[in-house]
Amino acid sequence: MNDLPPDLPRLRTLETWLAVTLDRVRWQIGELERREQERQQGEQTQPPAPDWVMELGIGRDAVPVYVHEGGCWNAGKRSRGVPRDAALRALVEGVPACPHCRPDSALGYLDG
Q1: What is the pTM of this model?
Q2: What is the per-residue pLDDT across 65-85, written as a single tens digit (0 to 9) for each?
Q3: Closest CA to 70 of 85, 57, 55, 56
Q4: What are the residue boundaries of the structural domains of the chain, listed by start?
């Protein structure tokens, strides 16, 4: 079964349409490959996650509300990396440890 047009003008039209469509498909493939390359570059150049994270409350003079380990899934958007001594100092000063990642245990801090 032949599903192509039988005459030359329609075949030329179909050829042109296929060429234009192929160009568009190749362009889209190139765009997606560039985006993937940029994403991979971004992952490679991203700085490592901090070992300790301080989650801050809301407001201009926000106070710490939790101490987290660096990769904790529960750290909020208002978090920033802190050095080990700052995380330990915050725990000593009464900032609660995240109940999920338990940074107090990782830091060797025993309350009380």
Answers
A1: 0.58
A2: 999 998 899 888 899 999 999
A3: 55
A4: 1-46, 52-107
